[in-house]
Amino acid sequence: MNDVSIPKIKAIQLLNNLKITKLDYLKYLEEICCEVGPRVKYEEILGAEGRLVTNGDLAIITVPKDENYKGRTRFSIAHELGHYILHLKEDNFFNCSALDMTSWGNSSNRNIEYEANVFASELLMPSSFLSEHIKDNELTLEFLKETANEFETSLTATIYKMVEVSKRAVAVVVFRDGAAKYSFRSKILQGEGLWVELGILNDKTLASQCFKTGQTYIARQQIEPMSWFDDKRITNYGLREEVIFFKHLGFGMSILEIIN
Ligand SMILES: [Zn+2]
């Protein structure tokens, strides 16, 4: 996630224009949408998590209402608002799946789903609010879940955003079908030029254990540092890994932290 990306700037501009200076104000997401343009409607959509339809001045965001997954619903609304603000010149109909809402793999090709996610995550979890909230806390899954509840947004988006603002040496890796697909690193790791190894999972990683056993969660533990980083410098440090697997989405996330 690039710090100066257009989607992030657009979200910050919207927060500034609407004078959203407190987390409480973000509870009024439907009103925020209305202020910008789209009306929010709750209705089941077959095979999709969110939809944006525009016709002239009329714009409607449709999402399924599920009180058990309020955070996910709010993220879907913010994602569709992202399409409205960023992509209307390209289309007037967006039908987005659960996988679109969790698309964080920025490739060299432009990915409008990734852009809508970056917009939504900054809107619901403004970096300035989040930095204050995170302080120097460790990114345990428990703390990440608490944060997702407090900011009322999805867990996958929270994990990404927390890695972005963390001052610790942390990374998140997305894996699917026994292979690490992409990763996102905190500023420290980016600055140090430490890259997470992608491709077939190393047997010593908890992600590999998770894939082989079908577990949906493996508690945090210390593992062999070189199993994720092919860089000799890492041998002077320790590495902790914690894993969650999202069965309904078919992928897992490993949260890594390099420690002294
Ligand atoms: Zn979308």
Description:
This protein is an alpha+beta fold. It has two domains: 6-128, no CATH class; 168-259. 38% of the residues lie in helices and 23% in strands. It is built from ten helices and ten strands. The strands form two sheets. A six-stranded antiparallel sheet has the order 7-6-5-10-9-8, sandwiched between helices. Strand 2 (50-55) and strand 3 (58-63) form a beta hairpin. Helix 1 packs parallel to helix 5 (112-124) and helix 7 crosses helix 8. The longest helix is centred in the first third of the chain and has 17 residues, at 70-86. The model has no long low-confidence stretch (mean pLDDT 93). It binds zinc ion (ZN). Zinc ion (ZN) binds next to helix 3, strand 4 and helix 5.
List the keywords:
260 residues, alpha+beta, 2 domains, 4-stranded mixed beta sheet, 10 strands, binds zinc ion
Task: Describe this structure in a few short sentences.
By secondary structure, the protein is an alpha+beta fold.
Strand content: 15-25%
Q: What is the radius of gyration?
A: 18 Å
User: Number of DSSP helices?
Assistant: 10
Largest sheet: 6 strands, antiparallel
- Unreliable stretches (pLDDT < 50, length at least 5) are none
Q: Tell me the overall shape.
A: globular
Give every kind of bound small molecule, once each: zinc ion
Strand order of the biggest β-sheet: 7-6-5-10-9-8
Mean pLDDT: 93
| Whole-number tally of structural domains | 2
Order of helices and strands: HHEEEHEHHHHHEEHEHEEE
Report how far apart the termini are.
26 Å
* Secondary structure tally: strands: 10
Helix proportion: 25-40%
Which structural class should the secondary elements be placed in?
alpha+beta
